[in-house]
Amino acid sequence: MDEVVAVSGLSAGYRGRAVVRGIDLSLRRGDIVGLLGANGSGKSTLIRAITGQIPLLGGSVTIDGIALATAPERAKAGFGLAIEPHELPAPLSGRQYIELVASIRGSAPGDLPSADLPGADLLERLELGRWMDRPIAEYSLGTRAKVAILAALLGRPPLLIFDETLNGLDPVAAWEVKRVITALCASGRHAVI
Known about the structure:
Blueprint: E1 3-14, E2 17-28, H1 43-50, E3 56-63, E4 66-67, H2 72-76, E5 79-82, H3 94-105, H4 122-125, H5 141-153, E6 159-162, H6 171-186, E7 191-192
Parallel strand pairs: 5-6, 6-7
Antiparallel strand pairs: 1-2, 1-3, 3-4
Helix pairs in contact: 3-5
């Protein structure tokens, strides 16, 4: 099966009030989908519902063939989510955060899809090497975003989810991250929202 995520009739919101309704979405390996809409239109709510951060009010989500409703832990293992940069734990170093996420995901801190990418490894491509042993509190918003992206790639999940992660990146870094995302999808092993 090459369908990475299937969303059918999804409704989700807060305090029982639907913000998004009747959403259908299907992605296969190699697909890249961007969610466009005005502020407050429900893009982040949709992502929170797909990732199991908020309960569904209706419909279903299946990730890599596993239903989120019936096997949430197994389904969540099928995606890497780049959290919002300001949510990174400021006291930890980038390396400590990557090690923490790797331990939660059950992967090695170096289990990144570098083999899927031409050229230098991800730390070099994202220019993170000199930052990894410094506290996240010292990072710019863009450097935090790069660490969040790196963490999402741990364990090589088939579905990669970025919610406004490119915000705060300088133009060169944003271009490099887009190149990485494109290369990962071109490998046929990942889909991206």
